[in-house]
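ERR on first pass: missing label on line 2. Operator R.T. fixed the label and resubmitted. Corrected input:
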Amino acid sequence: MPEGPELHLASLFVNSMCSGVVFTGPVQRSEVSKNSEVPFSCLAYTITATSRGKEVRLTLKPLKSGPALDISMRDQQPMDVVFRFGMSGLFRFTTEEELPKHAHLRFYTNEKPSRVLSFVDSRRFGSWQPSGTWQADRGPCVMFEYQRFRENVLSNLNDRVFERPICEVLLNQKYFNGIGNYLRAEILFRSNIPPFVKARTALEQLHLMDLSEEKQTHREVKEEVADMKMFNTTAVKETDMEEKLKEEVTEIPDLLSLCNSVPLEVINMGVKGYDPGQNHYTELKAWFQCYSVAGMRSTRDHNSRTIWFKGDPGPLAPKAKKRLKNDDHAGKKKKAKFPKKGKVKKEVEVPQKQTGRKCVMNSQEVRENVTRGRKAPQRHSGRMTRSNSHVQAQ
DNA sequence: CGTCCACGTCTAC
DNA sequence: TAGACCTGGACGG
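pass 2 clean. output:
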């Protein structure tokens, strides 16, 4: 499950499980791993973690202690190891006996029967770098460096990458560090921006808004709704517009604030029982409003990744692609798949309309709130579960 | 059995 | 912009 929220939950998991725990000896790498050895060995050390976008950094810190028995364990300097999770990476903390399959990097405690913090990665697309730093060309974290993230996007709209469809740019980690395939779908769904609108078109109006220090007035909101209507014909009806005008302006999130608030929602979901490998994905699936949801539409983007959406694909949608090799991300046409039985069963439906989260614009206040807020209270209003009530994508 | 699909990068024509 | 890198779950015959 690794997008920004899962990486952050992984860091919370490590800090929670390893608090007060002493590790010892060398860091062990699996035989099969192609990643580097981690040249760290110490009689007694601690592990802490932090995250940024789609990376996690572990800090291994030697404890002051008596003379080491093994010379190789002396004079060990602290070391950071920076992880990317690929498609399947996660951390687990188990006994040595219960070491999971695919535990490719392992840190052993000094306990009687050792316990082991391990980086588990069945597909091995994940990577780590000893003495690592945050990858240089990844942008600020969408979750925890929100103002810098926003600035980085809005001050670089001249970059040619913003000529690509917004759904594709949302996966560009230079600007959207932390967003992945499920988040882009959920974010665009809530913004009501068609996935294949040119990114610059979807974003440059936010730039203008940021330039004006004035609070939003209802008049401005009205104009925004009108603008939206122009580039998303399916989105806004007169009644919706009326509702928009009645809404508190501060409840209308723009695309960039959604890039912050939507991942934070996922984090807040997971924080209670945060073993990232366990119930989290089940909970996530129940939370999806668009990604892989029955009745939503899906197609391949220009990089052959599946984009889920509702309604109009937008002007830059790819024309039918030829069949290619049978491999990940190799283009194939795919229709919306339906969830296996057992999943959608008894859900009774809550009509789609409250997804009148339609407005593309927002106010300064929203940003302030979202940025500062540790919680993401704006959701939870309606259904939290996946269901086929969304049917009608057509 | 087989085929398709997956929450992500990387790098080589 | 194709692959390449991988394992494993879901589903079809």
